[in-house]
Structures are given as structure tokens and as C-alpha cells.
Design brief:
Blueprint (H helix, E strand, L loop, with lengths): L1 H31 L1 E5 L12 E15 L2 H7 E2 L2 E2 L2 H4 L3 H4 L4 E6 L21 H9 L3 E3 L10 H14 L3 E2 L5 H5 L2 E5 L2 E9 L20 H14 L2 E7 L10 H13 L3 E5 L4 E8 L5 E8 L1 E4 L8 E14 L2 E6 L3 E10 L2 E7 L4 H6 L4 H8 L8
Parallel strand pairs: 2-5, 2-14, 5-6, 6-7, 9-10, 10-11, 11-13
Antiparallel strand pairs: 1-16, 2-15, 3-4, 8-9, 12-13, 15-16, 15-17, 17-18
Length: 382
């Protein structure tokens, strides 16, 4: 009897030990990342379901803001070559499975005349170079979307369609706007949504409200719910905040909370032209959303303090499916900072911040460490 009691005691210790390990792993995992389990929509009783799993990396970069000095530097005879500006970082850009950029200037091309600040229009070739470098989709919802008018915007979107570069946030018709943009990779469907705070005071023509997505909670909520039905992961690209401020405003934080509460998994922000921190935001149902308040400038002609530093944020998303039950998890993000070097408004070239002598000479030998620490200063607000 004593022997049986002893064996039972040992068995219980082992059982509780295993449970403890599982619980510890779950707690540690959820403290730094996101997990979502979608319940069965039906019964799998009597079926021996096989678990299937896949994972992808989702990434984003900041503002592609092509000032006239940048496209003038790219000019080679009767064409433009932006490849040389991106060469040093192209290998990194090609690593993520899906990479999105904020194409802040329209790419209507030379037929209507190129222009820089304040009413931008860029050469077609910048879109060609982005696609060649590894960008899979661009957001076009920003305050410069209608800089040159509705016809110019159409020319820009027509060109993106022509080269097969998906876009989100501005549209050619109501039917276009009504469709959720979903990209699929390795069995994981990712929905991309995009909105901007405004258009620099430029009015949207009556009857063409579909042209660009303007921040509106009611519409955003509706589109998020639609996206959740069509995809595994919902990514929100949002143009918000205050220019040149290195920390998010209270308005940004409030809107981020709303979006996570509605079910957005990842928020990538733009507009401040400088980097703002990354944080996990807890939703009302206990789930988490990843918020990158600002990705800063990626390629631009701005060289004022911190406006020439940007980067790429990457998140690993894992999907597991057992029968009709699906779970989505997101690992802690990684950040790859970049620097745009130039001299006398020429020789624009991007470098990894960590090895950029130009950045070290301009800022300090500790600039890489400073930026990495800055991106982790979550919870602060201007």
C-alpha cells in the first residue's frame, strides 16, 4: 500500500511539474508577444484532426518622401535610377515575407511635371526601384495624396497597377475602396488597411469620397470587422501624429487603443518623419496589438536632426490550425535602423545605421545604441 501511495505521489509531482512548465511558457510568451485563439465554428467530434502550422515575417518601412533634390540626384540622362540609393540595404529588405512602405509622394511621372515640396510628384522609377528592392505593397493614404489633384492621383495609381505593386489607402472607384486588400503568404492571409488624418486642407471632390481613406472611427471599425472575416492578421497603416515629435501624442495613443480594441493586430504609423517607440497595447478582450507609432523617414531629402534616421520593423506571425480552431501568435518585433547620407543635396545613399560612418560623424559613436533604446521607450507621450 505504501509503495502504491509513493508511486501516486511521484506521479502527481511529475504531472504538476509538467503543467507548471506549460503555464510558465504561456505566461512568459504572452508577456512579450500576442496570442489569439479562434474557437471552432463547428464540431470536429469523431475526427482525428491533424495540426497544421506556418509562419511568416511581416515588416514595414517608413516614408518614401522624394524631394526634388533626391530625384535630381537620381537622374541619369532621360531616366532616374534610385537603385543605387538602396543598394546597401536591399539584402535586408528582401528578407521579410511581406514588406510594406509608406509611398508618401505620388508617382504620376514626368508627363505632368515632377515636383518637390510642398506639392509632390515623383518619377515612375521610384516605384520600380521599391518593387525591385523587395517592397510588396505600399500605403498611399497620407497628407500628400492629392497634392497634384485627382487626375494626378489616378496616373499614380494606374502606374502602380501597371507594374503590379499592390497599394492601399487611395482608390480609383467606390468598388476599389470597398474591397479589403489581402495578401496571402504560406497559407497566412494578411489584410492591409490604411488611413490618413487629412490632406493639407485639399478638399475631396463631391461624389468622390472614395478617393482616400480619412480617419473616421465608424468607417474604420466597419472595415476592421470586414477584414477580420477575410484574413488571419489585420495590419493598419496610419498617417497620424505631430511632425518631428519623437514620442506619440495622447491622440495617437487613444486611437491606437481604439484600433486594438476593434481587433487590429499590428499598427504601423507614419507622418512625424522621425522614429517613435514601439509598444504592445492590451485590448479590451485581453488580446494584444503591436503599435509602431512612427517609422520615421526611410528615403527623403530631409537631413535635419533625426529626420535622416529610419528603419524596418519586422514581426514573426505564426498560425496553427487544428481542425476548425485557429491560433495566431506574434513574436516580439525586431528593428533594423537605417541612415540616409548625403552631401550638398547630392549623393543620397542609404546605410545600415549600425555601420554608418556618416551617421557616427553626424551624431555620435553611440547613435545606434541611442536609437535602439529610444524605440523601446514605450508608454511615453508628448
Amino acid at each position: 500500500m505504501q509503495k502504491k501511495t509513493h508511486l501516486l505521489f511521484v506521479f502527481l509531482l511529475l504531472l504538476f511539474g509538467i503543467i507548471g512548465i506549460i503555464l510558465t511558457y504561456t505566461i512568459d510568451h504572452s508577456s512579450s508577444a500576442y496570442k489569439e485563439v479562434r474557437p471552432n465554428s463547428g464540431s470536429d467530434k469523431g475526427n482525428l484532426a491533424k495540426e497544421e502550422s506556418s509562419e511568416i515575417t511581416l515588416a514595414a518601412i517608413g516614408d518614401i518622401l522624394i524631394h526634388d533634390r533626391v530625384y535630381n540626384d537620381a537622374r541619369e540622362g532621360n531616366r532616374f535610377n534610385f537603385d543605387k540609393m538602396l543598394d546597401n540595404i536591399t539584402s535586408e529588405l528582401k528578407k521579410p515575407d511581406l514588406l510594406i512602405a509608406n509611398q508618401e509622394t505620388i508617382v504620376a511621372g514626368e508627363s505632368i511635371g515632377l515636383s518637390g515640396y510642398p506639392a509632390f510628384n515623383s518619377p515612375h522609377e521610384i516605384a520600380d526601384s521599391l518593387k525591385k528592392a523587395g517592397i510588396d505593397i505600399v500605403t498611399t493614404a497620407n497628407n500628400h495624396a492629392l497634392d497634384r489633384g485627382v487626375d494626378a492621383q489616378k496616373l499614380s495609381l494606374d502606374y502602380l497597377n501597371q507594374i503590379g505593386l499592390p497599394h492601399v489607402g487611395t482608390y480609383l472607384s467606390q468598388d476599389d475602396q470597398d474591397k479589403v486588400v489581402v495578401l496571402k503568404k504560406k497559407g497566412i492571409k494578411v489584410a492591409y488597411l490604411a488611413y490618413t488624418y487629412g490632406l493639407n486642407g485639399i478638399p475631396i471632390p463631391e461624389g468622390k469620397e472614395y478617393i482616400v481613406n480619412i480617419l473616421d472611427k465608424k468607417r474604420m471599425s466597419s472595415e476592421i470587422q470586414k477584414a477580420k472575416k477575410e484574413a488571419d492578421v489585420v495590419v493598419m497603416m496610419i498617417h497620424w501624429g505631430n511632425e518631428y515629435q519623437r514620442f506619440p501624442s495622447n491622440e495617437q495613443k487613444e486611437l491606437a487603443q481604439f484600433l486594438v480594441d476593434e481587433g487590429v493586430h499590428i499598427i504601423f504609423g507614419s507622418h512625424p518623419h522621425v522614429l517613435q517607440p514601439i509598444e504592445w497595447v492590451k485590448g479590451k478582450n485581453g488580446h494584444k496589438g503591436l503599435v509602431v507609432y512612427s517609422l520615421g523617414n526611410f528615403l527623403s531629402g530631409q537631413d535635419e536632426e533625426y529626420r535622416d534616421i529610419g528603419g524596418m520593423v519586422t514581426v514573426t506571425v505564426k498560425k496553427k490550425q487544428l481542425g476548425k480552431q485557429t491560433s495566431i501568435t506574434m513574436d516580439a518585433p525586431s528593428f533594423y535602423p537605417t541612415f540616409v547620407s548625403s552631401k550638398d543635396e547630392k549623393d543620397y545613399k542609404m546605410y545600415p545605421l549600425q555601420v554608418s560612418e556618416h551617421a557616427i560623424n553626424k551624431y555620435s559613436p553611440s547613435i545606434y545604441k541611442e536609437i535602439m533604446e529610444h524605440m523601446q521607450k514605450e508608454g511615453q507621450a508628448e
